[in-house]
Here is the input.
Amino acid sequence: MNTIELKNIVKTYSAKKNKIAAVDDVSFSVKEGELFGLIGPDGAGKSSIFRILTTLLLADRGSASVMELDVVKDYKEIRKIVGYMPGRFSLYQDLTVEENLEFFATIFNTTIQANYNLIEDIYVQLEPFKNRRAGKLSGGMKQKLALSCALIHKPKVLFLDEPTTGVDPVSRTEFWEMLKRLKEQGISILVSTPYMDEAKLCDRIALIQNGKILEIDTPHNIVNRFANNLYAVRSENMYELLTDLRSFPKTKSCFAFGDKHHLVLNDDNFDLNELKTYLQNQTNLEIKKIEPGIEDCFMSLIAKSNTTPEKLPA
Here is the structure.
């Protein structure tokens, strides 16, 4: 059974005399017990999709369901069975950790004790701070408290909108370990993130840009479909190197990735010495063939689709 279904969802927002398509004919499904990632940069349409699925926003067109309940007709029932963690920390900052948990448990007519086994792994890290006000917690602890509050009523589906944005790398790793354990308990999880390195931690992912789905598959399959050789290139003058690489006649694409530039050429059989000769003015030049990652696939898909924000008539 699919726990989440979207079919041809469209959502537009007014911008002066035009309408911007934030979600543009999006369709995908999430299987029971699946950890599904919605991967894309800020402004890609992820939060609008989450708000539609959690019955906080109405789509202009299309249909969506959660646990076979329609997000428009059955919104009251959906709100009882889902957990939602929005991108921005939205708990009561003047209440303590324990008071926030008790408040959310009371809303759903349950108690912390009734579902403690579900949050135990998370709460043991929060317990030393249970009397601290939520607003005084660190970013990682705020994240754990928000997840605990989203789980306290034992939801069947969990929606996490950019839950690791702004937290340290250690907390990000711990958070994904928690998600794995939750998935093992049969909870379906839809998580969005702008971090491409987190994509490989999902069972399946949908890559999204400017409201359009670029591709849906397992991270492994998406990477395996990368069609060209990929090179990491660096030198002492990285800005000048990027300009030179993009002007090289056989360059298909070139983007900055950390301390290197990732280069794809339109001829996989050409002699690399030709490129080295072209870049002979670059000092300490290094060219190395590498394996692609999700971010490389994402950039390649964007280049193929040439997606730009679509303006619709008012």
Summary: The chain is about 30% helix and 30% strand.
